[in-house]
């Protein structure tokens, strides 16, 4: 029995020495890593990149919210004008809604099923004009030196 007990003590001592050696190894390389001048630069670059990505995502989210708000507002205004018997004003607002819609083909299918044929025809004639005006405006913005 004394042999087994000695063996257990020896294994415990070896385990403790291994743990101390491992901790020393970790402390040594952590200190070496912290003293590395490139580490601080890499950390700053990484943090700046993360902040830039977060800012871009925030701006994109804000743009999406504004577009969605504009879309809903234009849809409501179009419906309001149509219900008041003013199809030209209604078509104006509905065409603006189609311009900012993410899936304009599906929206046009819904309009085809729900709008009176005369109003839908007005909308289909209005869309190329609105799209052309939008393209001209985009070209003007791209040519603007500011």
From TrEMBL:
GO molecular function term, any single one: mitochondrion targeting sequence binding
Superkingdom in the source lineage: Eukaryota
Protein name: TOMM20-like protein 1
A Pfam family recorded for this sequence: MAS20
Gene this chain is encoded by: TOMM20L
Cellular component terms per the entry's GO annotation: mitochondrial outer membrane translocase complex
Record organism: Vombatus ursinus (Common wombat)
Keyword Chaperone: no
Gene3D superfamilies on file: Mitochondrial outer membrane translocase complex, subunit Tom20 domain
Topological category with respect to the lipid bilayer: Single-pass membrane protein
């Amino acid at each position: 029995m004394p042999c087994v007990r000695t063996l257990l003590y020896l294994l415990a001592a070896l385990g403790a020495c291994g743990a101390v050696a491992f901790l020393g190894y970790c402390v040594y390389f952590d200190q070496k890593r912290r003293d590395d001048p490139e580490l601080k630069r890499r950390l700053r670059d990484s943090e700046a990149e993360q902040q830039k990505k977060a800012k871009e995502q925030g701006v994109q989210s804000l743009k999406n919210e504004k577009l969605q708000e504009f879309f809903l507002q234009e849809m409501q205004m179009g419906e309001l004008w149509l219900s008041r018997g003013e199809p030209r004003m209604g078509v104006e607002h509905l065409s603006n809604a189609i311009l900012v819609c993410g899936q304009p083909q599906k929206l046009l299918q819904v309009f085809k099923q729900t709008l009176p044929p005369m109003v839908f025809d007005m909308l289909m004639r209005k869309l190329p004009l609105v799209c052309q005006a939008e393209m001209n405006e985009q070209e003007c913005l791209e040519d603007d030196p500011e």
